[in-house]
Design a protein that fits this description.
Oligomer: single chain
Radius of gyration: 17 Å
Structural class: mainly alpha
Largest sheet: 2 strands, antiparallel
Shape: globular
Distance between the termini: 23 Å
Helix content: 40-55%
Number of helices: 9
Strand order of the largest sheet: 1-2
Number of strands: 2
């Protein structure tokens, strides 16, 4: 597993990179419908903030008898592929966003709080994640890096801007996607850096050339949405 300092640095870097972009947005920009319909950009940013939010107290310890789940296991949960799961996410974000006047401020506040709490914790500790089970805290943090990085791609696509994913985020998330894919992707530009992240998360369509390079592994894409 990637080192604890690396995953925290990756989360901090992704949050800072996204914040730098959303701080430049005008009020009219926030009303744009994103490539995650029916969310507007305002609703998407609030959703990202909610996805990394932690409480004031550390996450609870998990029972020692239970095998910790990995970051890849987090995305293998069957409910993630259901319409009901997706609809709950949509409705929760829309409901919450309606009460948030400043999405950028909300994101900055939640990111700063989360990083402060996590930096004071032992990221090698096995914690209990609601609706998931036991995870090493550092593994759960990787899933938060993926949440920010994938949705930052959504923001970039919506604004028609080049992606800004940090190298640190690409490094700590790549092993998770390889695990979910079931093998190493081809050694080509389409499967390194942003290209792999975008394909793995469904932000880049899979072309005939991709399928030729991947073979049977292409049927597993996207790895998550």
């Amino acid at each position: 597993m990637t080192g604890s300092v690396a995953v925290l640095d990756a989360l901090a870097g992704e949050a800072a990179a996204l914040s730098a972009v959303i701080r430049t947005l005008r009020p009219g920009d926030l009303a744009i419908t994103t490539n995650c319909p029916p969310w507007t950009l305002h609703e998407l940013i609030v959703h990202i903030a909610d996805s990394i939010r932690v409480g004031d107290e550390p996450l609870p310890d998990a029972p020692s008898r239970d095998r910790p789940r990995t970051a890849a296991d987090y995305y293998r949960r069957p409910e993630r592929d259901t319409d009901a799961y997706r609809q709950r996410n949509v409705e929760h974000a829309q409901s919450g966003a309606a009460a948030v006047p400043d999405a950028a401020a909300r994101f900055d506040r939640e990111a700063a709080h989360t990083l402060d709490v996590l930096r004071r914790d032992d990221t090698a500790r096995v914690v209990l994640i609601p609706r998931v089970g036991p995870m090493v805290l550092a593994e759960w943090i990787v899933t938060r890096v993926i949440a920010v990085a994938a949705h930052a791609l959504d923001v970039a696509i919506t604004l028609d801007r080049p992606p800004w994913t940090t190298d640190a985020a690409l490094r700590v998330t790549r092993p998770v996607f390889i695990d979910l894919l079931g093998g190493d992707p081809p050694d080509s530009p389409r499967w390194t850096g942003h290209g792999f992240l975008a394909a793995a998360t469904g932000r880049r369509p899979i072309s005939d050339a991709d399928r030729h390079e991947l073979g049977q592994l292409a049927d597993r894409l996207p790895l998550l949405s």
